[in-house]
Amino acid sequence: MFDFANQAYTLLIITVIYGDLFTRVIVGDAGDDYRLGNLLWSTALALSYLGVVATAPVFGAVMDYAAAKRRFLFLSYVTTVAATAALYWVEPGYVVLGFVLIVLSSYAYSMGEAFIAGFLPDIAGPQEMGRVSGLGWSLGYLGGLFATAFTVLLLGEVSKENFDRIRWVGPFAAAFFLLCAIPTFLWLRERGQPRRLPAGQGYVRLGIQRVGQTVRSLGYLRDLGVFMISLLMAMSGLAIVIAYAFIYGAQVIGWDERARLIMFVVTQFSAAAGAIGFGVIQDRFGALRTYMVTLVMWVAAILLIWVTPELTEWLNRWLGTEWQAQYVFLTAGVAAGLALGSCQSAGRTLVGLFAPPGRAAEFFGFWGLATKLAAAFGLVAVGALQAAVGLQSAILLCAVLFAGALVVAWGVDEARGRARGQALVE
User: Fold this and answer.
1) What is the pLDDT, as a whole number, of residue 338?
2) pLDDT given for residue 123 in this prediction
3) What span, in angstroms and rounded, lies between the C-alpha atoms of 169 and 415?
4) Residues 134/275, Cβ–Cβ less than 8 Å
5) How many domains in the chain?
6) Contact at 8 Å (CB) between 23 and 37?
7) Longest CA pairwise span in the chain (Å)
8) Position 202 in a domain
9) Is 244 a domain residue?
């Protein structure tokens, strides 16, 4: 249920509505193709992810000793709700306030992602992780579908003229997350047991020491270490897509509200289907193979996104049609949606399979570290690149990152990685 609830934030605030609102209305530098707004958006998200990089490994190690995963999850949940609701007070020109609230809400949300992932080994065995992880992602996309469809239909278009209505997107996302996550805290239990701290050590010092131990462990857990490199590259590309897909549609494709709504519905259903379908495939053929297939799909989808305006013109000349680029763009949305949830689900499953027993929260903290460090790098890179060459050309960076992740993943052996993880027990 937590995956169902928290997708309202990432879809309404990061992907579909608020990113477009921030760049085109709050900052609103239309004369420069919104390049300043895009750069500030990238920077805000990158700062939030760097905050996660600085704290998630320590928190993950601390949670293993204190058996405090549930408490950390609750704190991140409350902070996300409060900061997201406060976006209501960000008006056109209030760039600093909007920037700060995005950093805070995105940081809290991202920490919650890492905390909830740490529960996966508690609720699923090794043979069930793919299915359970895929189900979680699919429920998340269905939750996001409901929340975003309702918001788009109720609040209308993203524009300065409609600002008095669309500004309610923050409070609505906060309320959806607040209410739908309640069952998680009613039913989810902390299964770990607190362990006694070594004499003379506090949680922070111990957490830092555990980070060093985790880094040293990666020398033995070679496949996990190599996979983290691949995951870093893939999550860089994925972070760009999540943050810029609907901004790209508005600024490069020039779609209308109808096409935006169709794209959202198409990607949500295809993402939910992909998460469930590929989750079953993970359990049968292995999470690594599934992950690599999704990377191939991503490279194809990004190339199609990049070439959409020119491809539409070529098809119209060749076929004598009058298709609009916004509807050709929907084709890329289907491919991207299928790969979206399945790529993240397979990555989360592989971390769970490679992690040594009893140290899941610690290594999921590193999973959060890798993905958020990757996101920060990707967003800073694309923000700077689009400021120089424009958003359409800058989006090709994603294809390069997904292709690089695929090449690195060839060096991972899933069976060997699982065996070494099982052998490294405290």
Assistant:
1) 85
2) 59
3) 45
4) yes
5) 1
6) yes
7) 79
8) no
9) yes
* Amino acid found at 263: M
Q: How many residues does the chain have?
A: 426
As given in the structure block, the two tokens for residue 182 are 């309640």
As given in the structure block, the two tokens for residue 357 are 């027993």
One-letter identity of residue 79: T
Distance of alpha carbon 370 from alpha carbon 118, whole angstroms: 15
Model-wide pTM > 0.85: no
Exposure pattern of 60-88 as b/e (b: 16+ CB <10 Å)?
A: bbbbbbbebbbebbbbbbebbbebbbbbe
CA distance 76 to 99: 19
Both ends of the chain: CA-CA distance in Å? 32
Between CA 171 and CA 46 the distance in angstroms is 23
Instruction: Describe the crossing of helices 325-354 and 222-248 by its angle, rounded to 10 degrees.
Output: 160
Within a domain: residue 195? Answer: no
Instruction: Decide: 412 and 287 in contact? Cβ < 8 Å.
Output: no
Residue 308 sits in a domain whose CATH number is: 1.20.1250.20
Q: CA–CA separation, 25 vs 161, rounded Å?
A: 10
Map tokens 């990049």 to a residue.
306
In this prediction, residue 391 carries a pLDDT of: 93
Specify whether the CB–CB gap between 345 and 117 falls below 8 A.
no
Predicted pLDDT at 44: 97
Backbone angles phi, psi at 236, to 5 degrees: -60, -50
Q: How far is CA 213 from the centre of its chain?
A: 27
Tokens 């609009």, residue? 324
Parts of the chain with a pLDDT under 50: none
Q: In terms of residue numbers, what domain contains 222?
A: 2-190+207-423
pLDDT in tens, 188-226: 766 666 667 677 777 677 767 777 777 787 777 888 889
Name every residue whose Cβ is closer than 8 Å to that of residue 146 and which is 6 or more positions away in sequence.
Answer: none
Whole-number Å distance between alpha carbons of 334 and 73? 32
DSSP state of 17: S
In a domain, 196, yes or no: no
